[in-house]
Amino acid sequence: MPSRHPLHQRYPGLPDLLLLLVAMVWGSSYGLAKQALQFYPVLGVLALRFGLSFLLLLPTQRALADPAVRRATLGAALPLGLGLLAIFLCETYGIAHTTAANAAFLISLCLVLTPFAEWLLLGQQPTTDALLAAAAALCGAWLLSGATHLQLNSGDLLILLAAVLRAVVTSLTRKLTADRPVATLALTGLQGLLICLGCLLLAGLNGGLPALPRQPAFWGDILFLVLLCTLFAFFAMNYALRHSSATRVALLTGSEPVFGALFAVLWLGETLSASSWLGGLLMVAASLWAVRPGRLQTATA
5 in a domain, yes or no? Predict the structure, then answer.
């Protein structure tokens, strides 16, 4: 007879494991997004990525037949979808106009900002442990990026804005989904639909989009972004934020630049300095510190 206990109670480490996997796939997404942008404009890449995600998740909308689930899911979908639209617009345009090092450093500022966004939106004052882990992870990201002489251009400012929005949306997701009958996969699909429609609207206002590329490399990038960086990552984030704190989630996914660096070395053939490797190790240590037993409180639903 199957257990009646929820997954997060039977496997208490599941949310943390999912978040580390999210960090892995999101770390690789920067290089893949840059490759895709060589074939197609920003709005087109985003519309295609999230439109396909919605179509693949269309069967999950059947969960909305339950009135309580529908109210909770739709109530969360609109603000979170619009927030994610703003994040991805800032990130993708920013990546196109700045270096990978600056982007890795600036997006990691959400580690420091999330405890304060959680305090503002949820009334949960950050613990000393959370602040220390966030500060250590930020120092690690700084070393990893090699951005010792950071000069902000338009792309950098967009990435910085994306980091602020990430902190806010992470905390808002926790606020709108915790202890509510939200259908996680249906919510993921609706978020994708809102991002797709938003990008198509903006593209229409700017003269429309060109014909779709035919290069296999482009479609390989898109499939990876859809299946792993969107479907899996959004589901894992939405699931984890229902059973963990926003600060804990931000710290675990904060190892994203480490996996981005590994992807660049192993797949793109790039090299990293000793200070970059030191920064990566510091970020991993900060993430392990954040999830050590008995320290940071984990909210359960």
Answer: no
Let me know if residue 3 belongs to a domain: no
Contacts of 100 (CB under 8 A, 6+ apart): 30, 31, 34, 260, 264
What is the mean predicted confidence (pLDDT) over 135-144?
77
Q: Can you tell me which residue has the tokens 């808002």?
A: 172
Closest CA to 35 of 267, 202, 196: 267
273 domain-assigned: yes
Whole-angstrom distance, CA of residue 240 vs CA of residue 219:
29
Instruction: Report CA Rg, the chain.
Output: 19
| Count of the separate structural domains present in the chain | 1
Given 3-state DSSP classes, what are the helix, strand and coil percentages for the chain, each rounded to the nearest 5? 75, 0, 25
Task: Please choose, from the candidates 87, 91, 58, 28, the residue with its C-alpha nearest in 3D space to the C-alpha of residue 220.
Answer: 28
Structural domain that includes position 218: 14-290
What are the pLDDT digits (tens) for 189-216? 999 999 999 999 999 999 999 999 999 9
Residue 49 included in any domain: yes
DSSP state of 203: H
- For 208, other C-beta atoms within 10 Å of its C-beta total 10
